[in-house]
Amino acid sequence: MTDAALTRTTPARKVRYGSMTADREWALRWSYVFLVIFAAFSLLPPLYMFITSLKTSAEISAATNPWWVFNPTLSNYVALLTEPQFLIFFRNSAVVSVLVVIITMLISIPAAFALSRMRFWGSATLATGVFLTYLVPDTLLFIPLFKMFATFHEWTGIQLLNRWWVLLIVYPTLTVPFCTWIMIGYFASIPKELDEAAIIDGASWVQVLTRIFIPVALPGIIAATIFAFTVSWAQFLYPLAFTTSVDQLVLPVGIITTLIKGDVFNWGQIMTGALLGALPPLIIYAFLMDYYIAGLTAGATKG
Amino acid sequence: MAGVTLRKVVKRYGDVEAVRGIDLDIADEEFVVLVGPSGCGKSTTLRMIAGLEDISDGDIAIDGDVVNDVPPKDRDIAMVFQNYALYPHMTVAENMSFGLRLKRYPKAEIKARVDEAARILDIKELLERKPKALSGGQRQRVAMGRAIVRNPKVFLFDEPLSNLDAKLRVQMRTEIKKVHLKVRTTTVYVTHDQVEAMTLADRVVVMNNGRIEQIGPPNELYHHPRTRFVAGFIGSPAMNFIPARLTETSGALVLHLDGGIVLPVPASRTARYKTYAGQDGLVLGIRPEHVTEAGDGTLGPGIAPFDIGLDVIEPMGHETLVYFTIGGETHCGRVHPDAGAADGQPMRLAADLNHMHLMDAAGVVL
Q1: In chain B, how many H helices and how many E strands?
Q2: By a Cβ cutoff of 8 Å, what residues of chain B touch chain A?
Q3: Which of B210, B204, B175 is CA-nearest to residue B190?
Q4: What is the pLDDT of residues A257-298, one digit of tens each?
Q5: Under a CB-based contact definition with an 8 Å cutoff, are residues B42 and B36 in contact?
Q6: Which of B76, B29, B21, B14 shows the shortest CA–CA distance to B50?
């Protein structure tokens, strides 16, 4: 039989969707409408930044259509990337963020493990306390922290202000509570029999953590890592308050302090700097998203 | 390999006593099954032997050494969990060798032991797979393999078959028995399924409410239960419990049931039951297989006929279960498929009182 004959003998099947499917279709359509609105809302600013970053200062201040580039130029990118200051900011940001992520994980993972698995006096209160700590905003904390650092300097002679590494102490006050909290939740979802089996197999608590919990909870740990990195990378208030010299600044503060001179805003370079600064988190999200979603626990227990 | 001894073991959670003083001696190479309804303390007992729960009172000894304060890893035990508890990020071979690798066994020996266990359990071709690529029965085998490679003194099983479907459960039950015949490790096995208990155990420990009701080989528990709880728990369909009055007339004992049913007690039991004549709250216990069709021929000694209206029948093929009501309770008998039983019809049944049990109001078998 030829293909044509086959097509002819097969009656055209018109699929009638049930009411459930019609409902679903309706819901799907509306969710797309709102997704498009939301995507436009969040993508327009970066688009505007990108357009502006391709303009000269003259074109930015000219009264032309702000959504179009008439004389595109890469001069802003060249200027920033050849500017040693900008590279220092970038390096400071990278070093601070990576170290903060490492410090956060070194504290959060064991803390979450202890709070989710070991029942000790006050463990439940402590777990809630960790979360409450996160609820205290940085805008409330930076003044007392500043005062503490000044007092510390008076007592010990060690200067903590205007040192980039002090951010390694300050940022974890934000990242550790939250990361601990989400990891408590993740660890709690690991069946208790898994650690009991490991303990009977002869594992110590540390081995249960390193050989069972960390591999099994990798998606949760990666989620926490992404969070810690994003928070440290984007943190603005603390570095603004605690660092002042150009060589100690991180990217967000550096861009603002060096590219705004008095009342002169170098918009082209500000936008370029902000765009370049947004790249690393974007890349990290792109690479780790799959892990974020993958469920490694599948098959651990009944099924 | 070694025996396990429990002496007056108690487990308290706050004010609640989950296990109320258990004494149990498990011999070397013995397969002991702890069975009972949920909340009877059987799992807690197992977990105390494993060291996963502290003991509130009493002693537990493995191979003669008291292990009350010995951590699980130093008790030389292996445990199989209800939900398998396989490490999801490791292959089957890695799962099985995890304990040996922690103890830094030489690689060659680890491989030899894993291969041997895989051979016993017939899972050689699965060694490189991850748990999520295994079926329930295969996962259960791997969990057993993980226990076998350790070559421990004691195997502990915590309801290992509960997550499997009925057919696989029967199959794995046989597997477990075969493995025990090959490996011969002392085994403590917890289940709520009396069939598993009967089929697997050298000795069954029936637990209820944190206490041991009776310990014995499966058949002894079945034929000589000491309490009404054990009598009702072991056997399926369960034993019928029928309130009865016991009277004595000129040396012979007679049971009076509701609905005017009168059953003479066999002469062989007269001496045993005589003193209870006239006592209140007596209950006749009789298993469904001892309530059969009366037929046309003469009945043997101790077998008494009675007429009753059937409620429903359940043809099983090789037999038919008949249900009838005495004293407001439904009871069960097992008759031949050709005996003419029908829904809602009267039938003449025969009770084989040579196998009767008589219990007092407190549930003690007399």
Answers
A1: 9, 20
A2: 50-52, 71-73, 77-79, 81-89, 98-99, 102-103, 130-134, 136, 139, 146, 150, 163
A3: B204
A4: 888 877 778 888 889 998 988 888 888 888 877 766 654 443
A5: yes
A6: B76
Segment B171-189, tens digit of pLDDT: 889 988 988 998 889 999 9
Backbone region of residue B85 per phi and psi (left: phi > 0; alpha: psi in -120 to 50; beta: other values): left
Stretches in chain B below the pLDDT threshold 70? 1
Q: Across the interface, do B88 and A199 touch by the CB < 8 Å criterion? A: no
Cα B340 from Cα B99, distance rounded (Å):
61
- Tens digits of per-residue pLDDT, A5-16? 444 555 555 555
Nearest by CB to residue A302, choosing from B79, B84, B89, is B84
Strand partners, B323: B312, B332
Distance from CA of A227 to the nearest CA of B (A): 24
Q: What are the chain B neighbours of A191 within 8 Å (beta carbons)?
A: 83, 85
Q: Please state, in angstroms and rounded to a whole number, the distance separating the CA atoms of residues A247 and A89.
A: 7
Give the C-alpha separation, A196 to A202, whole Å.
10
- Rounded to a whole number, what is the distance in Å from the CA of B130 to chain A's nearest CA? 8
Among B233, B253, B270, the domain boundary falls at: B233
Gyration radius of chain B over CA positions: 25
Of B72, B83, B103, the CB nearest to A302: B83
Question: Does any domain span residue A89?
Answer: yes
CA–CA separation, B180 vs B29, rounded Å?
A: 9
Residue B181: which residues within 8 A CB-CB, separation 6 or more? none
- Cβ contact, residue pair B73, A202, below 8 Å: yes
Same-domain check for residues B181 and B322: no
Q: Is A212 on the interface with B (CB under 8 A)?
A: yes
Token pair of B330, please?
Answer: 């439904």
Of B77, B88, B139, the CB nearest to A200: B77
**Rounded to a whole number, what is the distance in Å from the CA of B40 to chain A's nearest CA?**
20
CATH number at residue B126: 3.40.50.300
The CA distance from A201 to the nearest CA of chain B, in Å, is 4
State both tokens at B200.
Answer: 């697997």
Domain residues for the domain of A194 are 75-293
Q: Which residues contact A7 (CB under 8 A, 6 or more apart)?
A: none
- Ramachandran category for residue A4: left, alpha or beta (phi over 0 → left; psi -120 to 50 → alpha): alpha
Q: For residue B283, what is the domain's CATH number?
A: 2.40.50.140
- Asked, for residue A112, whether it belongs to a domain, the answer is yes
Question: Residue A13 has what DSSP assignment?
Answer: P
CATH number of the domain encompassing residue A96: 1.10.3720.10
Q: Which of A203, A204, A301 sits opposite B85 (nearest CB)?
A: A301
ipTM: 0.83
Angstrom distance (rounded) from CA A185 to CA B223: 51
Mean pLDDT of chain A: 84
In tens, the pLDDT along A213-237 reads 998 888 888 888 888 998 899 899 9
Q: Do A216 and B88 touch (CB under 8 A)?
A: yes
The pLDDT value recorded for residue A85 is 87
A chain contacts of residue B77, beta-carbon cutoff 8 Å: 200
* Domain-embedded: residue B23: yes
Task: Give the rounded distance of the alpha carbon of A175 from its chain centre.
Answer: 10
